[in-house]
Amino acid sequence: MRKAILGITTGLLCFAAQASLVTDNFNRANAGLNTNAATSIGGAYELSQTTGDKKAQAGITNNTAFFGQTTAGTVNAGNIVLRRADISLQNSLAGQSFTVSADITTHNAASASLLYGLAFNYQTNNATYYAARLNTGGGANVLQFVQYNGTNVTTVKTITNSVALAISSIYNLQVTSTNTGSFSYILTGIGLDGGSLAGTVTASLGLSDGYAGLYTSAANNNPRFDNLSITSIPEPATIGMLGVGALVTLLFRRMRK
Questions:
Q1: How sure is the predictor about 230, in pLDDT bands with cuts at 50, 70 and 90?
Q2: How confident is the model at residue 169 (pLDDT cuts 50, 70, 90)?
Q3: Between 9 and 60, the higher pLDDT residue
Q4: How high is the mean pLDDT of the chain?
Q5: What is the DSSP secondary structure assignment for residue 40, as one 8-state letter?
Q6: Cβ atoms 130, 117 nearer than 8 A
Q7: How far apart are CA 176 and CA 74, in angstroms?
Q8: Greatest Cα pair distance in the chain
């Protein structure tokens, strides 16, 4: 007598979350200012501005990125974003998050208020975004968060320090968001209370996803940026049973009586 025994073995399939990561240390040949940022500094950069009729420009000098503007026009370029268009941020769903950071060199003069830093949640449809910007020459108000809603720039939160930022010094600024309602920050560098300033900001505009990059409020601020890093993490790994694609093992035994 022959018996056929059918054994079916099912397995588990794990879908691992893959983080998107881009870094740029700008360590390449100097590139003169150009309104076509992708050409002037290489990579998938896009340059935009929301104020002024002079055209914003971007370039590389001494292994750092910087901004400028054309001479044509009467009003200086302002609220400029140099963003990476090849990596989209993710923070609108549970388990998603992004982190943006860069080294920023403060201006070499203590006078005037010079604002530059990071842009994130940049929406290309109407250019809304958040900006985290250093305030050089602003006294104890050393870090400012603003939101651009397509029409106006408004202050979200101002961070103070017991002393002003040191001039001609490098500070690292990092922003992380795990949801559309808030983001955290950490600023490290010389002269900061406790060695660093950190906290959380409520994101009332509620922007989600978008893009990230570098920001300056005015092209003539002479900002310098280095080591831009953008990490975007999708939903976490999920584990589920294999269905139709189950591993099927057929075991046939011959039994003789």
A1: very high
A2: very high
A3: 60
A4: 84
A5: H
A6: no
A7: 37
A8: 102
Q: 136 in helix, strand or coil?
A: strand
CA angle, corner 174, sides to 173 and 179, nearest 5?
145
Burial group, residue 8, by CB count within 10 angstroms (0-12, 13-18, 19+): exposed
Q: What single-letter DSSP state applies at residue 37?
A: H
Tokens of 182: 């808030």
**Residue found under tokens 């400028």:** 68
Report angle CA 105, 197, 144 to the nearest 5 degrees: 65
Which residues in the chain are classed under CATH 2.60.120.560?
A: 17-236
For residue 106, which amino acid is it? T
Which of 75-79, 210-214, 221-225 holds the top average pLDDT? 210-214
- pLDDT for 9 beyond 60: no
Over 80: is that where the pLDDT of 248 sits?
A: no
Do 160 and 187 contact (CB within 8 A), yes or no?
A: no
CATH of 17-236 among 3.80.10.10, 3.40.50.620, 2.120.10.30, 2.60.120.560: 2.60.120.560
Question: How many residues are present in the chain?
Answer: 257
Is the sign of the CA dihedral 85, 75, 66, 30 positive or negative? positive
